[in-house]
């Protein structure tokens, strides 16, 4: 009877798997439906499926079909459909991973995302979604391609730089609804700067740091926070290439102190708390080069976030995967490669004694991430010749 119950379990699992796949196939068919409502519902159900589980095998023979439908929705859909399609582009990219297939997809979808992003007449929510998708898809699929990387950086910069100070030094009056777009574009740009060779990075530091510092005065709390985190990220990368000789450092620290102790009653309480916490960290890093390490636990493992570069990359994946982030950290080869986690662990819960210590695991994670960064730096140097 024990055997028959085990067999029944396997059969139940297979049936559930088949039902799930049937639903997914139906949603993929619905992406080409004539009704906008049906297409948007299909995009939403695929978003939930792609973020909550790894579907690499299922998508291998279908990702071109899905990609074609997403391109059509981006080109011809209304704002809500474009926004949903762009989000699914990011998820498809994370599911399929980089490699030759991913690069080929990006050559098609990248220009479409870019053209919506820079179109000032397009829907703001669609542009915001395209900013995020352009950052993630380029990070995963076009990291080795200097031309695609530079183009995406320029498009994102063209969007958030409209929040930069005017000639007299005052910040521009931004149209309602644009700060979330500026925030998404800045965060996507910051993600892609982690791939830049040192000569491009050096130019970015000199060009952007003073103007970003001025944006700490922005009236939008989320944009201010993104600006603070980007300043810390640029500082960290600048230190890595010995490029931080920033003459306005004292003024920057004063501005950061103001934001780290901001008691402005006009701001919502939660916003004030989050702002103070993040700006304390940024100030602490710029004054002392000290980063507050964060630990992300998943399964029997821990991901250590011990620098601003790693944090920006993790936050970018978390924005895309939402509640499915921990599942993907555990099983998705792309995320495990990016964070130097090695192959997925298959743990036998009965073997507790062989569990490696927390310190050993941290050292392994850090070493793997550093090794990967070194490898990326070699690729950067090759790209620098092209740039």
Summarize the structure.
With 387 residues, the chain is mainly α.
Structure description:
Residues 332-384 form the Interferon-related developmental regulator C-terminal domain. Residues 4-287 form the Interferon-related developmental regulator N-terminal domain. This is Interferon-related developmental regulator 2. It is a single chain. With 387 residues, the protein is mostly helical. Helices cover 71% and strands 3% of the residues. It is built from 17 helices and two strands. It has helices spanning 2-30, 36-52, 56-60, 63-76, 79-96, 99-117, 124-141, 146-160, 179-193, 198-214, 221-240, 249-260, 269-288, 308-321, 325-331, 333-338, 358-386, and strands at 294-298, 301-305. Strands 1-2 form a two-stranded antiparallel ribbon. Helix 2 (36-52) packs parallel to helix 5, helix 4 runs antiparallel to helix 5 (79-96) and helix 6 runs parallel beside helix 8 (146-160). The protein is globular. The chain starts with a helix and ends with a helix.
């Amino acid at each position: 009877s024990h055997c028959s119950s085990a067999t029944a379990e396997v059969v139940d699992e297979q049936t559930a798997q088949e039902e799930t796949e049937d639903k997914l196939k139906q949603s993929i068919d619905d992406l080409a439906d004539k009704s906008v409502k049906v297409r948007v519902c299909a995009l939403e159900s695929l978003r939930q499926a792609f973020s909550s589980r790894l579907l690499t095998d299922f998508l291998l023979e279908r990702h071109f079909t899905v990609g074609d439908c997403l391109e059509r929705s981006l080109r011809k859909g209304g704002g809500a459909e474009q926004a949903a399609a762009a989000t699914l582009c990011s998820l498809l990219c994370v599911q399929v991973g980089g490699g030759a297939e991913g690069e080929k997809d990006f050559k098609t979808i990248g220009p479409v995302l870019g053209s919506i992003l820079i179109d000032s007449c397009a829907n703001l929510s669609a542009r915001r979604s395209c900013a995020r998708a352009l950052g993630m898809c380029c990070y995963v699929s076009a990291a080795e391609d200097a031309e695609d990387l530079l183009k995406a950086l320029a498009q994102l910069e063209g969007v958030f730089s409209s929040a930069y100070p005017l000639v007299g030094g005052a910040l521009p009056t931004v149209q309602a609804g644009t700060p979330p777009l500026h925030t998404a574009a800045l965060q996507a740009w910051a993600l892609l700067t982690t791939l830049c060779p040192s000569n491009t990075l050096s130019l970015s530091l000199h060009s952007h740091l003073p103007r970003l510092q001025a944006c700490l005065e922005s009236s939008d709390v989320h944009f201010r926070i993104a600006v603070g985190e980007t300043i810390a990220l640029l500082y960290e990368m600048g230190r890595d290439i010995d490029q931080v000789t920033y003459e306005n450092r004292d003024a920057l620290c004063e501005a950061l102190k103001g934001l780290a102790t901001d008691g402005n009653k006009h701001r919502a309480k939660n916003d004030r708390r989050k702002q103070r916490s993040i700006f304390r960290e940024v100030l602490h890093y710029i004054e002392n080069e000290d980063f507050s390490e964060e630990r992300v636990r998943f399964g029997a493992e821990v991901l250590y976030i011990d620098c601003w570069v790693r944090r920006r990359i993790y936050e970018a994946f978390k924005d895309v995967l939402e509640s499915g982030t921990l599942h993907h950290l555990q099983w998705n080869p792309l995320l495990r490669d990016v964070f130097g986690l090695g192959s997925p662990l298959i743990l036998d819960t009965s073997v507790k004694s062989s569990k490696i210590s927390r310190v050993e695991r941290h050292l392994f994670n850090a070493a793997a991430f550093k090794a990967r960064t070194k490898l990326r730096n070699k690729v950067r140097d090759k790209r620098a010749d092209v740039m």
